[in-house]
Amino acid sequence: MSKMKMKAITLLCIYTLLCFTTQPPFAAAVTCDVSQLSPCMGPILYGSATPPACCSSLKMQQPCFCQYARNPTYSGYVYGSNGRRVASDCKVSLPRC
Q1: What average pLDDT does the chain have?
Q2: CA count, 13 A, side-chain hemisphere, 4
Q3: Burial group, residue 91, by CB count within 10 angstroms (0-12, 13-18, 19+)
Q4: Alpha-carbon span 97 to 95, nearest angstrom
Q5: What is the pLDDT of residue 4?
Q6: How far apart are CA 16 and CA 87, in angstroms?
Q7: How far, in Å, CA of 35 to CA of 44, rounded?
Q8: Residues 53, 90: contact at Cβ < 8 Å?
Q9: Is the pLDDT of residue 94 over 50?
Q10: How far apart are alpha carbons 43 and 86 in whole angstroms?
Q11: N or C: more exposed end of the chain, with fewer CB within 10 A?
């Protein structure tokens, strides 16, 4: 095998390895901020229709649900009937914490 082919194969192997071992840019850590769920206030507090902006916010804040559920200020909203309905509307599962 020529040196040129060997270098190309080596570079390809390194590139492939890097692609499978690095995290994609969208896997960045989520900052848990309950104010990011403001589009969900109406549906959770008053049972109004769930807007798409609420679903987007819920999906982004999903890694924070246990933190919110453990907070006595928010736990009733997370597991309350309207909170469960909104989660269902958005096809977001509520964890058991």
Answers
A1: 81
A2: 0
A3: exposed
A4: 6
A5: 59
A6: 38
A7: 13
A8: no
A9: yes
A10: 7
A11: N
DSSP state of 86: H
Find the farthest-apart pair of alpha carbons in the chain and give their distance in angstroms, rounded. 72
* Tokens matching residue 82: 């309207």
The token pair that represents 63 in the structure block: 């890694």
Q: Which of 34, 33, 51 is nearest to 42 (CA)?
A: 51
Enumerate residues 6+ apart whose C-beta is below 8 A from 52.
none
The token pair at 71 is 């907070």
The per-residue pLDDT for 97 is 84
Say how many residues make up the chain.
97
Q: Positive or negative CA dihedral for 36, 40, 42, 45?
A: negative
Reading the block at residue 90, the tokens are 């958005």
Two tokens, residue 39: 């589009």
Amino acid at 9: I
Lookup: tokens for 74 = 């928010």
66 residue type, one letter: C
